Task: structure prediction
Amino acid sequence: MKLRKRTAELLDQDYGADRIGRIVNVSLIVLILLNVIAIILESVNAIYIRFERAFWYFEVFSVVAFTVEYFARIWSSIDLEDAKDRSPVVGRIRYMFTPLALVDLIAILPFYLAFYVSLDLRFLRGLRLLRLFKLARYSPALGALLDVIQKEAEALLAAFVVLLILLVMSAGGIYMLENEIQPETFGSIPAAMWWAIVTLTTLGYGDVVPATTGGKMFGGLIGLLGIGMIALPAAIMASGFAENIHARKQKYNRYAKRFLEDGVLDESESRQLETLRKELGIDNDEALRLLRSIREEAGESATTTCPHCGESIE
Result:
């Protein structure tokens, strides 16, 4: 269907490549930002009481717009490049479980849940702030973050399980050492978990401290262990980001090599490369360097103009 394919192009292509697509995507970006501003202002009671009706109308308008966007993306998702080899049902279901689609769902779900479940207003505002993550669709950096979290989910889960075990052991240890001396602070293992969290993360607020010699020695040991264990998720994310950047460059290289097979970049190929560069978050200098390396590998002697910065690729 032409309409479905056009919808996919407008919603998923780079918003600078098509005038109508740019209007649609910039409008959605502005609406997301206005929603975040509205949520922040609603937390000020004086402002909320004065403009309560206006906030409500804006929320309804936003939810309707985001709902239409969400279902339009699901409907047209089977026309995306990575879904064309699947059946319509399977393609749409797989799209619904992608990180960006889940973010789109979370952006509208609290509004509809409020009709069936009694939700605290502060909790509802907190959930609505998650709409800020919708900007990941238009930001290569936020998009990379979601990609890394998705790909490293198992490693991150394993790291958090280890941290949870260490948290329970820390709380149990300090409970046994300090319970008799400070029953009001370390009266139970759940109560001691606050101290364990603060110590493991090396925050050290100082509001809860061990009094016995054994408790102090145990606290020092937990602090040293915490330095290494808390760094584990950060190391996993750093490694994931490095792999993600490498994968993005490899993807750009594949497309560039295919376009440069004949030694010339025509207007259509240049436009596609520029769209891909923006989508992958590769800057002009890096893209030019990659194109030059491809030309050198191919042994081409002809001069081609870089589609990103207008410089010659020799």
